[in-house]
Amino acid sequence: MKNLLLLNLFYLFAFYPFCLFFVLLQRDRVKYRMKTIINILFALLLLPLGVWGQARQYEVNDHGKRAIRADQDVKISRPDLVKKKGNCFILMSKKDFYLYVYEAQGKDTVMVARYDACFSLNKGQKQRKGDMRTPHCTMKKPFKITQIVDASKWKHDFGDGRGQILSYGHWFMRLQTPGSKGIGIHGSTNNRESVPGRASEGCIRLLDEDIIDLYKNYAFVGMKVVIKAEDVGDLPFETRAMERQQIKRKRNF
User: Fold this and answer.
1) DSSP label at 63?
2) Is the pLDDT confidence value at 32 over 50?
């Protein structure tokens, strides 16, 4: 965000004034061809729009606690693309706050769903209970869903003064994550505004309607789950799938 601000300030107070001054110096040479001048200025104006249009991530005070928020993206859910549910797997990006569902279809890997997600407040690999980190893994050593339970009546005290409140949405998908217990994918009841971003104690939050959609159309016990570390970008098959399916993405931090 700091680099983005500096770039915008450079355009506003240095680059644009210089370009305008240069064009005005050439007024006699172009013989007041205002159309040319306007076209040049318009083209220059468009240069930083791609940067200004990027999604943001920013710090907020969430019920007295620090949290990271990001701009929301459009949900994708295409159960009609699924050929065999058992071939679906979940891939998450802690870097860009997404949960994807892919299906291996022959030589292709197809994206069938994408949801905004909230991960742990702190970055890095989970080391111990209470460290506010979401564990990560690799494609070669994935996690998996070991249990899917109705969590619609589950409550939790976040220590923020709200006491015991409903917190998990309708479903809790427990993950087998070596070295840590209690990690799962669930809804965001009473914490909806935290999705997407970083605010959880270690679990992965989706919007309440998205955890229902994930359960209804894609998730199953034994499903492979990969959570990429914060410094891991798109894997080659992800890049190919997004290009082939012409899927646009707002967040790519």
Assistant:
1) T
2) no
